[in-house]
Amino acid sequence: MKLISRRNVLKSAAAASTLPLLGKSAFAMDPVKVAFVYLGPIGDHGWTYAHEQGRQAAIAKFGDAISTTIVENVAEGPDSERVIRRLAEEGNDLIFTCSFGYMNPTLKVAKRFKDVKFEHATGYKRAPNMSTYNARFHEGRAICGTIAGHMSKSGTAGYIASFPIPEVVMGINAFTLAAQKVNPDFKTNVLWVNSWYDPPKEADAATALIDQGADIITQHTDSPAALRVCEERDLLAFGQSWDMTSFAPKAHLTAIMDIWGPYYIDRIQKVMDKKWESADTWWGFKEGIVALAPYNERIPADVVAEAEAIREGIIDGSYDVFTGPIKDQSGTVRLAEGRLTDGDLLSMDWYVEGVQS
Amino acid sequence: MNDTIIISIIMTVIGASTPILLAALGELIVEKSGVLNLGIEGMMLIGAVVGFAVTLTTGFHLLGIVVAMLASTLSAMLFAYLTLTLTANQVATGLALTIFGIGISSLMGEPYVGKTIEIFSSWFPASLAEHPQLRVIFGYSPLVYLSLILTISVSYFLKKTRAGLILRAVGESDLSAHSIGYSVIGVRYAAVAFGGAMAGLAGCYFSLVLTPLWSEELTAGRGWIALALVVFAAWKPSRLLFGAYLFGAIMTLELHAKAAGFSFIAPELLAAMPYLATIVVLALISLRKSSGLAAPACLAKPFKPST
User: Is B190 domain-assigned?
Assistant: First the structure.
């Protein structure tokens, strides 16, 4: 009979604790460990939900070859550093940090953990082991703007915005410019709510914008609350990040959908093939990262045809919403002719004529 | 600015104020009995999801509200059992209740994301409720009128009734109340139950009236504002009503001012205003101990009779 003494127990515990270390080098077929840091709850049915769909697509593709971890509801800023650091310490190979506000914390952790690969969504700071990725949401905004230009009777849209970062500013401008191509007097009234997710506040913001004359609402925040307000008041709205038709079957015209799956699959595959390199990826309609939810049947057929033509134009490069001449809010010509470069877009801090903010 | 916009602003302010008023009324009674329940946010979320789910399944708003109040009360009873019977730390247990509420409401709400229900709107005839001017009086959800009735009732209960006196006695001096034969624990159980029911009602306001939908963490921190409001109101129902509308106005006027093109104060500062106001009131309370602004003497103290 084997005696269970304290010493034996300690010995086996020590042996067991080396197992994970051994495992790492001994078995080449270890699953790639991938972690995701999410801004909101998965159930927001918006931004975070879309990232989660991307993760599910990766799981469906790779199965047991990857193991994934998620952390939901991570506040942007310094607090997120603790979470990202912990994920790096836990031996993840690839960490996706899925919001703009994680930029500096991700960079800080990336400098400490050279062997871990980081992917930061929507930011602009990179490192040898830190990539950035984003989607050309403004391409989708241009479609929404075109539809809004046709469908709005008052010629004023309400835009519920989160934070004045380039990505949001660029969306506001793309939407407004596209609408003005249809209706030159089109105005966009922007309301900042200083939050990505606050359903009661988003609903109140929609009410405030409607009271000021907007009859169509679009948003760069993540909850469907504003859509519900529009549904109640029999007005129009666009969904955000995912198809939100079920919340507002009458009001929901279409939505910009974020399809992250192809990108996540591509990057995980590169880690598996040991071909991963730091990169800056900015995909759009063409690569299938940005898509549109089904058009509402109340949109007239010719408007749908026009929207689809623009979408095809964006894919083949013949259409760019940021084509000159473009004037800013003060009426100064910012771009006489030609197109804005990606660099111009990514540092955009001015509004086009017709934006009220 | 024309009168339609002013009326609409008034209605939005009242809409934003009502849930914090409801939740704060419940917490006021809880704190008056000497218990500090930090779980408002969690109880509100439980109420919101249960109210939504029951209304969606049965089609009856009132049934949804009643079941939601029961569910929130049940979660409050869990808190009461831990803190009153087992004398666990109230602050820690309350925080745990909030975290529990966030988690379980997300879990229970999973099948209901993306579903919609009819808004729980005014019972007055459409000629009044949708009248361009009169809607400022008749155009609200029944819960708004209920919140006003409850404010008056709570005020009357605390000031004029014998039961209210006992509740206050338990909160001010638990040992004295115990020594003359009142059941301190029993009174506190009842108070916590009332607080839970009110938080459930407040949660329903979000999921049945304000948004009306269910999505995770729908209340987005309003429970903490309700908690601050009780302190701001110095535990007085009449000031609670004033404070709730003030906080609601601060939260929504910002939006209306900006939508109309005014920008006179940094929005971040406006968003911090309810908390700043509470800090100022707390400072005033500590300066003037005798003026009746003080907290119930036994607040958050566990009661262990030596029998």
Answer: yes
A210: three-class secondary structure by DSSP: helix
ipTM of the complex: 0.79
Q: In A66-162, which ranges are continuous DSSP H helix?
A: 78-89, 103-112, 137-151
Number of structural domains in chain B = 1
Q: Residues A231, A297: one domain? A: yes
Nearest CB to B12 within list A208, A223, A356: A208
pLDDT value of residue B263: 66
pLDDT tens track for B153-195:
999 999 999 999 999 999 999 999 999 999 999 999 999 999 9
Q: Burial code of A127-160, b = ≥16 C-beta within 10 A, e = fewer?
A: bebbbbbbbbbbbbbbbbbbbbbbbbeebbbbbb
Please give, rounded to a whole number of angstroms, the shortest distance from the CA of A213 to a CA of chain B.
10
Interface contact flag, A204 B16, Cβ < 8 Å: yes
A102 and A190 fall within a common domain: no
Is B139 within 8 Å of chain A by CB?
no
* B297 domain-assigned: no
Interface check B270 vs A, CB under 8 A? no
Q: Are residues A239 and A343 in the same domain?
A: yes
- The CATH number for B265's domain is 1.10.3470
